[in-house]
Write a structure and sequence with these properties.
- The structure holds 2 protein chains of 2 kinds.
- Chain A folds into 3 domains: about 1-220; about 235-295; about 310-455, Histidine kinase-like ATPase, C-terminal domain (Heat Shock Protein 90).
- Helix content of chain A is about 70%, strand content about 10%.
- In chain A, helix 2 packs antiparallel against helix 5, helix 4 (about 115-140) packs antiparallel against helix 5 (about 145-265) and helix 7 crosses helix 8 (about 345-365).
- Chain A is an alpha+beta fold.
- Chain B is elongated and about 55 Å long.
- In chain B, the strands form 3 sheets. In chain B, strands 2-1-3-4-5 form a 5-stranded parallel β-sheet, sandwiched between helices. A 4-stranded antiparallel β-sheet of chain B has the order 6-7-8-9, covered by helices on one side.
- Classes of the chains: A alpha+beta, B alpha/beta.
Chain lengths: ~450, ~230
Amino acid sequence: MNRRRTFTFQGWPQLSPQQQGFLIILLPVFCLVSTVGIFVWLSMSMSDYEKAVRHSQRVQLEARELLNHLIDAETGIRGYHLTQRASFLEPYHTALAQLPATLEEIETLLSYSPQQLTNFQHLKTLVNRSIGLLTAQMNPPPSDRWPLIQEIEQSKRVMDQTRAAINAFITAEERLLVNRQQQLESLRQMHAIALILAVMVGFLGSGLAVRLFAKLFRELERRRQELEAACNRLSQFTANASHELRAPIAAILSHAQVGILLGQQQPEQALLRLEKVASLAKSMGQLVNDLLFLARHEGVSPPDFTTPLEVGTFIQAIAQEWRETHAQSHTFHLQLPSVPLLIKGDRDMLKQVVLNLLSNAERYTPAGGTITLQVSQRGEEVVIVVADTGIGISATALPHIFDYFYRDERVQRRGIRGAGLGLAIVRQIVQLHRGSVLVESQENQGSTFTVKLPLAT
Amino acid sequence: MRILLVEDDPEQLEPLKTILGHQGHLVDGVKEGETAQWLLQEKTYDLIILDWMLPGMSGLELCRNYRQAGKETPILLLTAKDTTGDKVMGLDAGADDYLIKPVEVMELLARVRALGRRSPRWLGDQLRLNDLVLHLSSMTLQRGAKTISLSTREYQFLEFFLRHPGQVIRREQLELHLWEWDNQPESNAVSTQIRRLRLRLEELGCAEWLETVYGMGYRLQAPSSV
C-alpha cells in the first residue's frame, strides 16, 4: 500500500481536480509525442546512413571503373605499339572518352564524404598524368623505338602509382563503408531498443494515467458523497430547525387564538391560555438565546481567557446549587480532586457546560438511577466527567448527538422534551476553551460525557 | 364531525383539540403514529388531521398506509415542513390538504369544514327531521320560527341521533361514538346527557321525540312517522 502511495508523487492530493485531469491527459500525449519524435529522429538518421552506405558502394564501383578505364587505355596503347594497328587503339579512345565522366561522378559522390576528397585530388592528378603519358606515346613515330621504351617505362611507373593510389582509395572507401554499415547496424539496434522502450513507456504512461484517473475518479466520488452527506445534513438541519422553531410558535398562536375565541364565553379559558402563552414564550426565548449563542460563537477562534478558575470549588458550587434546585430522585455522587486545579475560562459558559450535562443526565436517567460528577487531573488537562446510569444513546444516534436540533427518536418516543441544542452548546463552549468533549454510551447502560480542558500554566 | 388529531407536541395538541371540540367536533387526540394507526383500524372518522414529524411512525407513513388500505376519509397534513417538495410528497402520499405551522386557527377551522363537506358521511349543512332542523355550521336547532343555540355536547348528541333517525341506539353505541377514545364515561353520563337534551328539545316543544326504549336504548323520531 505504501509502495503504491509513493508511486504517485506526494504532492498529487494537493492538486486541484482540474490540474490532476490536465496532467492525466498530458501524460499519454507526452508519451506519444516523445515516442514519435524519437522515431522520426532515428528514421532520419538511418536514412542518412543508408544513403552514405550507397554512396560508398557507388564510389567503390566508380573507382574500379576508373581503374578499368586506365587498364583499357594502357592495353590499347600497348596493343597499338605491338601491332601498329589503329584498331587496337579503340579501348584507349573509349576509356579516354569515359574517364572525365567517371572522375566527375566520383567527385560528385564524394561531396557526402569529404574525408576522401584529398585522396581523390591526388588520384585525379595521377590519372591525368598517366593519361598524359599514354597520349604522349601515341605521337612519336614508331621507327624510333628507344625513346618510346623510355616513355613506356615512365608511363608504367606512373600507371603503377596510379593503380596503387586507386586501390588505396578503394580500400579507404571500403573502410568508410564498413564503418558506415556498422553505424547503420547500431542505429538499427537503437531503433529496436527505442521501439521496445517506447512501448514500455507507453504502457507505463498509460498505466499511470489510468491509475491516476481512477484515483481522481475516487476522489471526485468521495467529494460527491461528502457534498451529498452535507446536503442531507443541511436539509435534516433545516427540517429539524423549522420543526423546533415553529412548534413553540404554533403552540403560542394556537393558545392565543383559542383564548381569543373562547375568552368571552369562558374567561377562565383566556387566563389559562395566557399562562400557557407566557410559559411557551419563555421557552421560546430560551431557544432563541441558545441559537443566538451558537451563531455568535460559530467558527470563532478561541479567545484568550484571563480569569483563573479553581475547578474543584467551582464544580462544588455548581453541584450544590443544582442539588438544591432539583428533585432528589437520583443518587448523586460528587468526586473532587484533592489538590487545587486551575484553568482559565469564562465562569458562566463553563457553568452552562456542567449544567447542560447534568440536566441531560437527569432527564435521561429514570428515577432511582445514579448520576456521577467527577473532576480529576490527567496530564496537562482537567477532566470533568458526567456519568449516568440512564437509557443511554443508540449507536445510530451517537455520531449526531452534538448536531444542532438533533434528537434521538427513542427519546422523543419517551416524550422527553428538548430542542436538541444543549450538547451543541456544550461542544461549542468547550472548543472555545481549547478543550474537547467525548461521549461513551450504550443503549440502556447509561452515558458518560468527558470534558477535557487545558490546565492553566 | 368525528376527527382524529395526531400531534406529538401536547402544547399544540391541546388547544387544537379544545377549539375543534368547541366547534362541535368530537376529537380523538393522539401523540403517536402507532396509536393513530390502531385507532384508524378500530374507528371511523370524518376527518384526520396529521402532524408529519412524529416519533416512531411518521404522519406521512400513516397517511400512506391508510390510503393503501383503500380508506377515503379526508386527511389534512399539519406540519412545519414548508418546501414545495414536502408539500408534493405529502399530497402524493394521500393527503387532501396541507397546512404549514404555525397555522391560523380560523383558517384551520375553515379547512376542516371544507374537508368535512368531502367526507363520505356528509349530508349537507343541515340535518332535518320533519320540521326540526339542526344547522351544523352555527350549532343551532330550529323548529318553525324558533331557533335555539346548543352547547357542544348537546349538539354532538343531537347530530348523532339525527344521522340515525328512527333507529334504536344502544347506550354502548353512544358511549363509543360520543366519547373520546381515551375517555371512559361514568355510568350515568349518557342518561344525564339525554336528560339535558330533552330539556333543550322541550324549548321547541318536541322533548317527546327522544324516547327511551326500555332495555334497549334511545330513539329520536317525529310523531307523524309513528
